[in-house]
Design goal:
Blueprint (H helix, E strand, L loop, with lengths): L6 E5 L4 H9 L5 E2 L14 H17 L9 E13 L2 E3 L5 H11 L3 E12 L5 E12 L4 H10 L19 E5 L2 H5 L3 H10 L9 E4 L3 E5 L2
Helix pairs in contact: 3-4
Length: 218
């Protein structure tokens, strides 16, 4: 397959935050949800779990696609989990679970791990890695926890918090890439593309001020 062919990126995730992050970085991905049952995957280490889930998601979508003669198609799978107090925390089971988590996490810190896996459709090329960021939680009040959980936002995300939404007010800082906490590390994506002999600039779409799309690059 020629390296001069244009690149198409398929995001194997229904996360609007991941898609928005890519779009803000000049990349317009197609989206195809993997349908992988996350409950079937277990691991002792948070890093191993998120990477295996990312791999399964990317592979599941890649298996449903076919290579084309006019483009190279890459599938990106991502998954995030929070390592806290020796536990691996994904999405809360319900509002009560989210409340209990925040009561434990407030005033303390955890590590958000996001696994990334890239598969090129039509050949055996694939790479994966994990990005990790330390997250410091504010000493929020019971009333703030109740109000936050009532919004429903923490029920839909790993670790029961966001950095780019309402939950951002309840973090005092991070150590690492903020994109990891959103669910996709752009620096790591750049490195994975490089490992496949590609550049992240090959995925860029030229954008004018005000996010008005002008024309594809190259």
């Amino acid at each position: 397959m020629s390296n001069s062919l244009p690149l198409r990126l398929v995001l194997a995730s229904q996360s609007p935050a991941r898609r928005k992050l890519l779009q803000a970085a000049g990349i317009e991905p197609d989206v195809l949800v993997s349908g992988v049952d996350e409950s079937l995957v277990v691991a002792e280490r948070a890093e191993d779990l998120c990477l295996e889930l990312a791999r399964r998601k990317a592979q599941a979508v890649a298996d449903r696609l076919r290579s084309t003669p006019d483009a190279r198609t890459l599938v990106l799978g991502c998954d995030s989990v929070l390592a806290f107090d020796g536990e691996i925390l994904g999405k809360p089971a319900d509002a009560a679970d989210a409340t209990r988590r925040w009561e434990r996490m407030r005033g303390r810190s955890g590590v958000l791990h996001t696994g990334h896996h890239l598969v090129e459709v039509g050949n055996e090329s694939q790479v994966g890695a994990v990005a990790s960021t330390v997250v410091h939680f504010a000493d929020v009040t019971d009333a703030e926890i109740a109000a936050y959980v009532a919004t429903g936002e923490p029920l839909a995300v790993a670790g029961a918090f966001t950095i780019d939404g309402l939950g951002g007010a309840f973090l005092t800082g991070i150590e690492g890439d903020a994109g990891t906490v959103v669910g996709l590390s752009l620096p790591l994506l750049r490195r994975l593309l490089h490992d496949l002999g590609l550049s992240i600039t090959d995925l860029w779409t030229k954008v004018a001020p005000g996010a008005q799309e002008v024309e594809p690059l190259g």
